[in-house]
Every structure is written in C-alpha cells, then in structure tokens.
Design a protein that fits this description.
The chain folds into two domains: 2-95, no CATH class; 120-258, no CATH class. Helix content is 52%, strand content 20%. It has helices spanning 53-62, 96-119, 125-138, 144-148, 156-167, 174-187, 191-210, 220-227, 232-258; strands at residues 2-13, 19-32, 35-40, 46-50, 66-69, 72-77, 81-85. The two termini are 24 Å apart.
Length: 259
C-alpha cells in the first residue's frame, strides 16, 4: 500500500525571503508513555511535514509502506536503494535528479546554520527575525545559546520569533529556559529582565502548544510564581500558559479514553 507525499510551501521563509518546501504525509497519532508518536499511515487523519523528500520516504519505509510522489511509486530495494516507477513502466531514474537536488538543498541548509547564527549579531530586526525563524525550523541545537541571547530584545517581532523558534526544540530547551528564568529572578531587576522573563513565559506557552502537557512538568513552580508577580503582564502570561496546559491535558485524556 502506498502513502502519498505532497509538496507544499511553508509559511516560514529563508533569510532571502524565499519559501521553504515541505513534504507532507498522512499519519496516525498514538499515545505512548513518552508522549504522542506519529506513525505514517495511508488512513491517517493527521499530517506531518518533513524537510526533504528523502526524509519523508525514509519515514514511510520505516513504517512498512511504499511511497507515492507526483504519480511515481517509490519502493525501497534493499540491494540498490530507492527505485521509482510510474504505473506499469519499468524502473527509471526519473526521480533521481530530484533526490540529488534535495540532498544538495539539505547540505546547503546545514552549511547555512553557522552563517545564520552569525546573523544573530545584527542590529536590524528585518535580519534577525528570518534568521531566528530559520534556525528554529532547522532545529539547530548549536544556535540555542545565541537565540537565548535575544530574549528581551527591543523589537516585539524579534521576541515573538525567539519564543516560537525556541519552542521548536521541544523538551531539549526546557532546562536552559528554566536556568535562565531562575537566574533572572535571583540576580536581575528592571525593564530588560522583566521582558526576558515575559519572553520565557511566552516560550513555555508555545512549547505546550506544540508538545504534550508533560513538557512543562519541571517548570510549574516558575509558572505559579509568575501568577503572583507584581507585573500584570507576567501574571497574564502565566495564566495563559495554564489555560493552554489544562486544555492540552484534557485533550490528551480524551484521546486516551478513545484508545
């Protein structure tokens, strides 16, 4: 059975303003002790996007299915690798240039990571925002310290991009956020520290929107503390995190009951 792959443009753009291509496949979302797990399935009601065609095909093959892309059936031959065929035609190399092109793009994106990190030193928000977004989409872990350094930025657009980008690293960034927030509470005062704490709370909000509720298990004390903060925006941000957290947990319980 074949799983269809559809190519679509992401709303996220590169630093040059070009749209990023994603490869989307249907998946079934299963509840596991470690959280939700997406499994490629032709009858799936949810979708998952992959950065390259090759990665999408690999995910489908790992799930035990064949892939279909732009009318071509893609099968994994254990001896020769991926072959493609269209309807009853004999195997051809029609897809090979696409796969090669995707590989070149993937290598180019990897090479761009240190350049994007260096761009985070720029002063202009017009450069910072797309650079931060790109690093988040690429999930470049080496960029996390530099992105954290933009917390509390003067530009609201940069700060929003930072929260969204950090949330895309999932649970891997929670410890850094907790440490930064705790340090701000004990050592820093003033407007800049306040904005940084607000950004971290907004990042917690983005994290729970993108992950299961357990991702914030270790930060509940910080959220509850913020509910009693003297700054009303911090109180509001903390309350919003709790709203989304409660909604996410209710959804998870409903999904578990249906299994």
């Amino acid at each position: 059975m074949f799983i269809p792959i559809k190519q679509q443009l992401s709303s996220t753009k590169t630093a040059e303003g070009k749209s990023i291509s994603l490869f989307v496949i249907p998946v079934m979302v299963l509840q596991t002790p470690n959280g939700n797990k997406s499994i490629p399935n032709p009858h799936g009601q949810e979708v998952e996007a992959f950065p390259t065609l090759e990665v999408a095909i690999a995910a489908i093959e790992q799930a035990g299915f064949d892939a279909e892309f732009e009318g071509r059936h893609v099968r994994l031959n254990t001896e020769t690798g991926f072959n493609t065929q269209k309807q009853t035609q004999s195997p051809t190399k029609a897809l090979t240039p696409k796969l090669q092109a995707e590989q070149l793009v993937q290598e180019g994106l990897k090479s761009a990571i240190p350049l994007l990190i260096n761009r985070l030193k720029d002063a202009e928000a017009f450069t910072l925002v797309p650079s931060v977004k790109a690093l988040g989409v690429l999930q470049a872990k080496e960029a996390v310290p530099a992105i954290l350094g933009l917390l509390g930025h003067d530009s609201p657009d940069v700060r929003e991009a930072v929260s969204v980008a950090l949330s895309q690293f999932g649970s891997g960034v929670v410890a850094d956020l907790m440490k930064t927030y705790a340090k701000l509470l004990s050592e820093s005062k003033g407007e800049f520290a306040y904005r940084k704490r607000l950004d971290i709370l907004n990042t917690y909000h983005e994290l729970v929107k993108r992950n299961n509720s357990s991702v914030l298990a270790g930060v509940m004390s910080q959220i509850l503390q913020a509910l009693g903060d003297e700054q009303w925006l911090l109180r509001s941000a903390a309350a919003q995190v709790l709203v989304t957290l409660a909604q996410k947990q209710r959804e998870e319980k409903q999904q578990m009951a249906q299994v």
